[in-house]
Fold this sequence. Notes:
Blueprint: H1 9-29, H2 34-53, H3 55-59, H4 62-66, E1 71-80, E2 86-97, E3 103-109, H5 115-131, E4 138-143, H6 152-166, E5 175-178, H7 185-199, H8 220-238, E6 247-251, H9 255-266, E7 270-276, E8 279-282, H10 289-298, H11 306-309, E9 314-316, E10 329-332, H12 341-349, E11 354-356, H13 365-373, E12 377-379, H14 381-384, H15 387-401, H16 407-431, H17 438-456
Parallel strand pairs: 3-4, 3-5, 6-7, 6-10, 10-11, 11-12
Antiparallel strand pairs: 1-2, 2-4, 7-8, 8-9
Helix pairs in contact: 1-2, 2-5, 2-17, 5-17, 6-7, 8-9, 8-15, 8-16, 9-10, 12-13, 15-16, 16-17
Bound molecules: NADPH dihydro-nicotinamide-adenine-dinucleotide phosphate.
Amino acid sequence: xxxxxxxxxxxxxxxxxxxxxxYELIKKRNSDETEFLQATREIFDSLRPVFSLHPxxxxxxxxxxxxxxxxxxxxxxxxxxxxxxxxxxxxxxxxFNSDLGPYKGGIRFHPSVNxxxxxxxxxxxxxxxxxxxxxxxxxxxxxxxxxxxxxxREIMRFAQSFMTELSKYIGSDVDVPAGDIGVxxxxxxxxxxxxxxxxxxxxxGVFTGKDxxxxxxxxxxxxxxxxxxxxxxxxxxxxxxxxxxSKVIVSGSGNVSTYAMEKAxxxxxxxxxxxxxxxxxxxxxxxxxxxxxxxxxxNNLRIRDYxxxxxxxxxxxxxxxxxxxxxxxALPCATQNEIDEKAARLLVAxxxxxxxxxxxxxxxxxxxxxxxxxEVLFAPAKAANAGGVAVSAMEMSQNSMRLSWTEEEVxxxxxxxxxxxxxxCLNAARDYGRPGNLIIGANIAGFxxxxxxxxxxxxx
Length: 460
Ligand code: NDP
């Protein structure tokens, strides 16, 4: 590789102009897609040195092609509630890029789902999947359906109707969905069942995140949360720090949050607060995870019900205030843009040492700048939360081989993958002149693999 020091002024200008021009084009084309523009901007800012060293990416139009999804599928999802009333939601699947393998990414059921959110998630997923080193492309899907307050039968009817249309576009070598917000094992079961019913067979590898009793991988449920903690532990180690003895705050109390809390506790941390969309709880004695699992995973109750078992804890209905509690490590694991600049200032003022993004894009651009300026260790989502999709890819392998690995085998592979991702981020950051900056390192390392495959596969 040519050294960055050898890059001429002209090459730098060419790279800057290219990034600027493509961003202007994307802004014009997607002017109302706030989250998608936020995600592309964040990546573009990191890639300037790459284009100054690799003009072949410019001549191959990599950025223009990489920011336009292969296709966006939207469809009507009609379903009947328990009273026989018909409802219509909008379903989505964004198949972003398949240069590294079949499209891969979760399905989200949440009222906020729209084209911008689907595109930002599928775009990020492409880089994340590349970072895992596994043969998977990037995609994402979902619907603006709110599972809250729906009966089990209503959820089943919705999931079946959603899959009836989606089944035309997916397949184990084409596009392999998984869960995300509002989509857990139960919903995956209904969708997987409907797919096989429509196709008249049993195609194990068409969905990941399945129940381990019915073709799923052991360790998948825990993978994103555990993986985030493994990644952050690597980052802390570098500075002589660790989870042991640290005070930790985890936002959310869903799949990612629960298992991030579990692993942080196993490594000796005290988790003192967590939340759901209706507020947060603070328990200075340390959150009781058994109660959280009982409330959220097993009974779909609200986080405020924690106080019935633990009256010494406090409940506050403003979930954004969770970041005002002093802590050593903050793991935002709920949703996008949950830490804004104000929250970041509070965390910095309270001497937070590390942030690990378990959710996708949970920190705004301004919040990230604040953390970097104050030298807070920062683990970006596309690297830190890649453990979920990494184990999903393992599920695909096990399904193909028709065998199952033990929980220990999966966990060992997961730890190794998170370590490898950490090292590739560090190496890319160093090679491109920003040593230690994992945000830039993750963007560049994720980009290079996809870009090289795109060059190899020709213009299409
Ligand atoms: P879940 O639906 O299981 O959990 C989401 C949790 O966040 C719920 O507890 C929800 O509360 C809470 N929540 C939602 N909005 C807020 C808010 N504004 N403030 C506080 N809490 C809130 O989703 P997942 O755990 O699967 O996903 C969480 C994040 O992680 C998403 O960004 C997702 O894209 C990302 N991710 C998930 C992966 C996975 O394997 N599941 C893989 C990689 C990334 P309530 O119960 O009230 O709805």
